[in-house]
């Protein structure tokens, strides 16, 4: 299986695909991906995963092996399976660029394509966009909680799959992390990688100081030594004693890492030991079950910590492990469509989002309306794919800059970790009028039944 395997979807996508093709339902459809509402602890979200979504659309096709397997399953007609050999995504996509700040009920991606194509891609698009946006949003909160600190993703081993770990490294880097411990992320995306040492390396040696020296001489570049295998303060003193011998051989201790215990108190005592030993330039890096709330507490206490490795809480987004996101039909054959289910109603038609800023450069609110409306402010959705081919592929650096700029634009209420106040999203009169017109049409259809 590969990440873009067309069988990596729900069975009902194939069921509908055959029914659409059998019934000749191949007119143009418009689907939009959005998050219905923000979780209680989120004042904003960060759009991420678009590059992988476009890659999936651009490479979508069925191999002879796929078709043979589907044929052997006995679930589908021979005529349908013959059509799959020619099946490709040929549509258009408009989206918020990766790194955009967005709020509830705002489409961050719109697909316009023949109905069978636009429907079939639903599951994988939701899968990709949901996860990376979820993790980028979590990471952005950590960036806000620890301004000026080096943040590194340590979460691969606790991620819910290998792909999740890799994509979490990407999403967190977009959101402002300095890098990741996941080596493949460096090869796949060019993300900086960081690595120190494990407790097992210390335990494998009979003497802790000997373990430090052996590691330093084997891996002298960007040397960071782990202090808390036994007695953290004693280990710090051993580093002070070792550092001059290493320096004589051109090896500098760049940092030490704390991974357990009373981190607040230990960071202060270790800082004192290092400073007294002439190692004021050695940084203190902390890991071990951290989240944004702990980062904020370290900041408020002015703890002498220079960087953090964040794992489980990042790659699982432990406080908010899922977003209420959906991919819904908004138009078919030129006719606006609307879902009216209780609690899950949608706004019909092709839509655009306009963003307004105050005199201070902060976001005052967004306007949601039909695509052909005109409002002051920045239009957030832009063309990214036409006729099944992507138009651009911006570098990760541009995405990081977009997140940084977007976070600067957030009002203080939206930036808060606890009980945040998201920016308002207003519904334009034209969209309200269209919704009323769709409801009247649906009511008339019900009367005719």
From TrEMBL:
<feature type="domain" description="Nicotinate phosphoribosyltransferase N-terminal">
    <location>
        <begin position="7"/>
        <end position="129"/>
    </location>
</feature>
<keyword id="KW-0328">Glycosyltransferase</keyword>
<protein>
    <recommendedName>
        <fullName>Nicotinate phosphoribosyltransferase</fullName>
        <ecNumber>6.3.4.21</ecNumber>
    </recommendedName>
</protein>
<dbReference type="Pfam" id="PF17767">
    <property type="entry name" value="NAPRTase_N"/>
</dbReference>
<dbReference type="Pfam" id="PF04095">
    <property type="entry name" value="NAPRTase"/>
</dbReference>
<dbReference type="InterPro" id="IPR041525">
    <property type="entry name" value="N/Namide_PRibTrfase"/>
</dbReference>
<keyword id="KW-0808">Transferase</keyword>
<dbReference type="Pfam" id="PF17956">
    <property type="entry name" value="NAPRTase_C"/>
</dbReference>
<dbReference type="GO" id="GO:0034355">
    <property type="term" value="P:NAD+ biosynthetic process via the salvage pathway"/>
</dbReference>
<comment type="pathway">
    <text>Cofactor biosynthesis; NAD(+) biosynthesis; nicotinate D-ribonucleotide from nicotinate: step 1/1.</text>
</comment>
<dbReference type="GO" id="GO:0005829">
    <property type="term" value="C:cytosol"/>
</dbReference>
<dbReference type="InterPro" id="IPR040727">
    <property type="entry name" value="NAPRTase_N"/>
</dbReference>
<feature type="domain" description="Nicotinate phosphoribosyltransferase C-terminal">
    <location>
        <begin position="378"/>
        <end position="434"/>
    </location>
</feature>
<dbReference type="InterPro" id="IPR006405">
    <property type="entry name" value="Nic_PRibTrfase_pncB"/>
</dbReference>
<dbReference type="GO" id="GO:0004516">
    <property type="term" value="F:nicotinate phosphoribosyltransferase activity"/>
</dbReference>
<dbReference type="GO" id="GO:0016757">
    <property type="term" value="F:glycosyltransferase activity"/>
</dbReference>
<feature type="domain" description="Nicotinate/nicotinamide phosphoribosyltransferase">
    <location>
        <begin position="150"/>
        <end position="331"/>
    </location>
</feature>
<keyword id="KW-0662">Pyridine nucleotide biosynthesis</keyword>
<comment type="similarity">
    <text>Belongs to the NAPRTase family.</text>
</comment>
<dbReference type="InterPro" id="IPR007229">
    <property type="entry name" value="Nic_PRibTrfase-Fam"/>
</dbReference>
<dbReference type="InterPro" id="IPR013785">
    <property type="entry name" value="Aldolase_TIM"/>
</dbReference>
<keyword id="KW-0436">Ligase</keyword>
<dbReference type="InterPro" id="IPR036068">
    <property type="entry name" value="Nicotinate_pribotase-like_C"/>
</dbReference>
<dbReference type="InterPro" id="IPR041619">
    <property type="entry name" value="NAPRTase_C"/>
</dbReference>
<keyword id="KW-0597">Phosphoprotein</keyword>
<comment type="function">
    <text>Catalyzes the first step in the biosynthesis of NAD from nicotinic acid, the ATP-dependent synthesis of beta-nicotinate D-ribonucleotide from nicotinate and 5-phospho-D-ribose 1-phosphate.</text>
</comment>
